[in-house]
TrEMBL record:
<feature type="transmembrane region" description="Helical">
    <location>
        <begin position="54"/>
        <end position="76"/>
    </location>
</feature>
<protein>
    <recommendedName>
        <fullName>GPI mannosyltransferase 2</fullName>
        <ecNumber>2.4.1.-</ecNumber>
    </recommendedName>
</protein>
<dbReference type="GO" id="GO:0004376">
    <property type="term" value="F:GPI mannosyltransferase activity"/>
</dbReference>
<feature type="transmembrane region" description="Helical">
    <location>
        <begin position="152"/>
        <end position="172"/>
    </location>
</feature>
<keyword id="KW-0328">Glycosyltransferase</keyword>
<keyword id="KW-0256">Endoplasmic reticulum</keyword>
<feature type="transmembrane region" description="Helical">
    <location>
        <begin position="119"/>
        <end position="140"/>
    </location>
</feature>
<dbReference type="GO" id="GO:0031501">
    <property type="term" value="C:mannosyltransferase complex"/>
</dbReference>
<dbReference type="GO" id="GO:0006506">
    <property type="term" value="P:GPI anchor biosynthetic process"/>
</dbReference>
<feature type="transmembrane region" description="Helical">
    <location>
        <begin position="312"/>
        <end position="331"/>
    </location>
</feature>
<keyword id="KW-0808">Transferase</keyword>
<feature type="transmembrane region" description="Helical">
    <location>
        <begin position="88"/>
        <end position="107"/>
    </location>
</feature>
<feature type="transmembrane region" description="Helical">
    <location>
        <begin position="466"/>
        <end position="485"/>
    </location>
</feature>
<keyword id="KW-0812">Transmembrane</keyword>
<dbReference type="InterPro" id="IPR007315">
    <property type="entry name" value="PIG-V/Gpi18"/>
</dbReference>
<dbReference type="GO" id="GO:0005789">
    <property type="term" value="C:endoplasmic reticulum membrane"/>
</dbReference>
<keyword id="KW-1133">Transmembrane helix</keyword>
Length: 488
């Protein structure tokens, strides 16, 4: 039988082949709405690697350059010319840095053949599609660690491979790279490799602005570990060490974001007269990113709640509905525990600190990443207790008693993270971006996987609806996005 990890990789590869094939198909059948993608003015600093006056394969070069649309234009431009304009600082530098490194090293021999800008674009496609495959593998491993159910984890991973925002994971966007760094970092964190997890989670903050939210996982873990150390082990000195270590790891996740803001301040504000500086330079806390989002894109609390934006709200409705359902279903199982940050569980066995963060052991890292024997025994005991108590409880009470799988307290930090992201997407951001903004949130796929497995009152119809939603957005997204029409 094929090993499950290998199966996930194959699904991920075939999903990327499907999306890339759709992009090529729609580009060949329809004319793009905007044909300015091939325009490439010289860099302002004139320090970029120059393209030969003539290339060997101009048709190939034009096809690759023509595929660079929407935010991909910014990514390629930054990789080629650096940060030339204020609004380009809305895009974080890790992906452009990787594009530049790959194009000027491994792919450098292709520059005389198709030109430097086409090589940058080709680098982006290679990096992001490879990152997606690795992200799917780490997502599967993380799912097994949290859910301890290989079948549900596999189904959730397949859903991720064909998620509704797939077009962005195969384009020159930051979704694939961010998903890889987030899933990988959280997987190592949940597996007990605290120091290893700092690197990918810090780099996630160097890839996207919302990467700083990953510091919350360290904060949640530190909170429970310190509580466990103080109140159960009575080791106050050790608790202080835990708090300091956790604070340091949180700071490491924040540093890339703060460093990039400082870089923007130095380039755009430092050494200039007050009358020559932008308004954000004179603010008490000069955050360039917030100013750009508000000034250039109109991002702000309730600023998108307009009648003319109703189509965009409808476009985001499916993913926001899924987010709401996944949060509310989990919340109903134990609202007290949710409100009290995991300290309100009815018993120590169900407490997040005992179940996940204070067990002090690294999980097995076999190919399929099965749960450890101790975890499996604990799950069986909990299920046995549920079944023996079910006869004396009402159906609702019996359902809420279940504390494994999706109901496990292990999911609590993920639910907090998704709640904040979903609220931000609905009330602050351009709501249509929700589809890709929430696409790296594990609870969405875990909840959908359980629905498709006939849990939570799920049915075959739920599975059909979920797959129809994913398939329609993949088809619609690849058609509209690749031809420079608005999608999300």
């Amino acid at each position: 039988m094929m090993k499950t990890g290998t199966m996930v990789v194959r699904y991920a590869v075939w999903s990327r082949i499907l999306v890339l094939g759709l992009i090529i198909l729609w580009r060949s059948l329809f004319s793009p709405y905007d044909t300015s993608a091939s325009l490439n003015p010289a860099c302002l600093n004139h320090s970029a690697l120059s393209t030969p006056p003539s290339v060997v394969f101009p048709t190939v070069a034009a096809a690759i350059q023509g595929s660079v649309v929407w935010d991909s234009v910014y990514m390629i431009r930054i990789a080629e010319c650096g940060y030339e304009y204020e609004q380009t600082y809305a895009f974080f530098p890790f992906l452009p840095v990787l594009l530049s490194l790959l194009s000027q090293s491994v792919l450098r021999p292709l520059i005389p053949l198709i030109g430097y800008r086409a090589v940058l674009a080709l680098s982006g496609y290679l990096i992001n599609n490879l990152a997606f495959v690795l992200a799917a593998l780490f997502f599967y491993r993380l799912s097994v660690v949290i859910l301890k159910d290989r079948d549900v984890s596999l189904r959730a991973s397949i859903l991720f491979c064909f998620n509704p925002a797939s077009i962005f994971y195969s384009s020159i966007y930051t979704e694939s790279l961010y998903a890889l760094l987030s899933f990988g970092g959280i997987y190592y964190l949940m597996s007990g490799a605290n120091n290893v997890s700092v690197i990918p989670l810090a780099l996630s903050g160097f890839t996207r602005s919302n990467g700083v939210l990953n510091a919350g996982y360290f904060g949640f873990k530190t909170l429970h570990q310190s509580y466990h150390t103080i109140y159960e082990k009575k080791r106050f000195r050790l608790a202080l060490q835990v708090i300091l270590a956790g604070a340091f790891r949180c700071i490491c996740v924040f540093i890339p974001f703060l460093a990039f803001q400082a870089y923007g301040y130095y380039n755009l504000c430092h050494g200039r007269k007050p009358d020559d500086t932008r308004p954000w330079c004179r603010a008490r806390v000069p955050l360039l990113y917030n100013f750009i989002q508000s000034h250039y894109w109109g991002v702000g609390f309730l600023r998108y709640f307009q009648l003319k934006q109703i189509p965009n709200f409808l476009l985001a409705f499916p993913v926001l509905s899924m987010a709401y359902c996944s949060i509310s279903v989990y919340l109903k199982t134990d609202p007290k525990n949710f409100i009290m940050l995991g300290f309100g569980a009815a018993s120590k066995e169900n407490n997040s600190a005992d179940v996940l963060f204070s067990r002090g052991e690294k999980l097995s890292r076999t190919d399929d990443h099965h749960a450890t024997k101790q975890d499996a025994i604990s799950i069986k005991r909990r299920r046995l207790n549920v079944s023996t108590e079910a006869s004396s409880r009402s159906p609702a009470e019996s359902r809420i008693t279940i504390k494994c799988g999706y109901y496990s307290p292990d999911l609590l930090p993920f639910i907090y993270h998704l709640s904040f992201m979903a609220a931000t997407a609905l009330f602050v951001m351009h709501v249509q971006v929700s589809t890709r903004f929430l696409s790296a949130s594990p609870p969405l796929y875990w909840y959908a996987s359980y629905l498709m497995g006939f849990s939570f009152g799920g049915s075959r119809r739920c599975g059909y609806l979920i797959w129809a939603y994913a398939a329609s957005y993949i088809l619609l997204g690849s058609l509209l996005f690749s031809n420079f029409y608005p999608f999300t």
